[in-house]
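Hi support team,

I've been running sequence recovery on a batch of backbones for a student project. Most finish fine, but this one hangs at about 90% for roughly twenty minutes before it completes. I'm not sure whether the input is malformed or the queue is just slow. I've pasted the structure tokens below so you can try to reproduce it. Let me know if you need the job ID as well.

Thanks,
M.K.
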């Protein structure tokens, strides 16, 4: 320590650096740390202590940031397209590209290899890294493009119904939480979409809780079958779709209906609904994603033959 200087409280210093990172979605330029009151010496010391990661000169990241996010920043960009969508938890089809998508600004320069910040790189140098240049609707903050830009950059890589599913997820309000996309950002999305895809925005519905609900919903809309979505039958029983006041359609997502306990609970609820006079059809993730036409044919057939409802 330099004579006459007060000792540095490293716990407080690290806490301040963490707040800077939290305000910048996990990645911040040195200027943000300096603006907070930290010195270059303190930032460098936190890096040496392992409290900060330095993907590239002048940029620091949270050590807990996902590895792919650090790689994207090291290149000179941020997570974009499929990688950004995945980081936000937006649903993607099983065959979605699994490369690292790096979103770059038009003036991006001194681009680097994603695994070596000292090595210069050009597009295509890394087989598992894809560079994406695209206009951004919102300013990037941190390690990934904004949700609205993640949706826009998804367009070339997913089918129409999965784009709608991603929009549904962005709009969905989780219990006790907030949607991924704000009202203001959502309003910017439609005019930024190609005209042929603006119907995806029109069809989006944040009540859908899984991509298979979205896919089936779009199929019903295409056939002109009217339905109610996420209907509470009683305070403790909510169903995915209710058609004609008597036909209930349930779709089983892979992650929520796989356990023995959930399997039993689903069948117990189906039996209770049947006792009340409802007809229940239950379809799996595979059936909806791989054989939607058959699923829709079954629904149409049941509707054609009537409810058979008690009372």
């Amino acid at each position: 320590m330099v004579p006459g200087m007060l000792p540095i409280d490293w716990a407080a210093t690290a806490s301040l650096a963490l707040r800077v990172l939290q305000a910048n979605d996990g990645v911040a330029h040195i200027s943000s740390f300096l603006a907070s009151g930290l010195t270059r010496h303190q930032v460098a010391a936190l890096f040496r202590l392992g409290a900060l990661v330095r993907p590239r000169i002048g940029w620091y990241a949270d050590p807990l940031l996902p590895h792919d996010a650090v790689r994207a920043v090291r290149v000179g960009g941020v997570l974009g397209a499929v990688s950004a969508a995945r980081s936000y938890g937006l649903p993607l089809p099983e065959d979605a590209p699994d490369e690292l998508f790096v979103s770059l600004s038009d003036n991006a320069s001194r681009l680097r290899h994603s695994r070596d910040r000292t090595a210069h790189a050009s597009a295509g140098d890394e087989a598992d890294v894809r560079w994406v240049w695209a206009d951004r609707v919102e300013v990037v903050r941190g390690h990934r493009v904004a949700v609205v830009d993640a949706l826009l950059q998804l367009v070339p890589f997913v089918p129409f119904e999965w784009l709608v599913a991603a929009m549904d997820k962005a709009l969905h309000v989780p219990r006790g939480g907030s949607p991924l996309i704000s009202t203001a950002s959502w309003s910017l999305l439609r005019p930024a979409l190609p005209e042929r895809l603006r119907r995806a925005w029109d069809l989006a519905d944040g009540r859908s809780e899984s991509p298979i609900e979205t896919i089936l919903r779009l199929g019903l809309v295409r056939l002109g079958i009217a339905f109610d979505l996420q209907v509470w039958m009683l305070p403790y029983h909510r169903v995915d779709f209710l058609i004609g006041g008597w036909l209930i359609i349930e779709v089983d997502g892979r992650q929520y209906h796989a356990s023995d306990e959930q399997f039993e609970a689903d069948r117990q609820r189906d039996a209770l609904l049947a006792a009340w006079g409802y007809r229940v059809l239950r379809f799996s993730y595979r059936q909806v994603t791989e054989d939607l036409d058959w699923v829709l044919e079954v629904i149409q057939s049941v509707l054609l033959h009537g409810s058979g409802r008690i009372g």
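--
Follow-up from support: It reproduced on our side and the slowdown came from queue contention, not your input. The domain at 211-305 is CATH 3.40.960.10 (Endonuclease; Chain A). No action needed from you.
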